[in-house]
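ok so for the tutorial part 2 we go from a plain amino acid sequence to predicted structure tokens. step 1 is just haveing the sequence, like this:
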Amino acid sequence: MLWWQLLATAALTILAGVLAGAQGALSAALGGAVSLCAGGASAVVASWGDRQSASGVIGGALRAEGVKIALIVGLLWLVLSTYREVVVLAFFGSFLTTILIFAMAFFIREYE
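step 2 — the prediction. this is what the tokens look like for a chain of 112 residues:
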């Protein structure tokens, strides 16, 4: 899943760069980075969960989702409050695309 998110972020960064210049490219890259950071932290927290019982698995999953949501809100706020030249369409387009890819992980099977 990480590969697909990175690929989408790179493609949207290039597209935003062509359409909106350097500020658009940076905005799209930051949008993808918010999702990637939150998803990565969520995966780490989920791996810490107790896998010996159903309640441990559910508790780990809920903690992981809480961390993901908190990081998303915090990182969105950080980018929007500090980066004055943000291209909002590129930023949120990239962010939403990578979040949707992360959510689709359940439906996609990767074969090695």
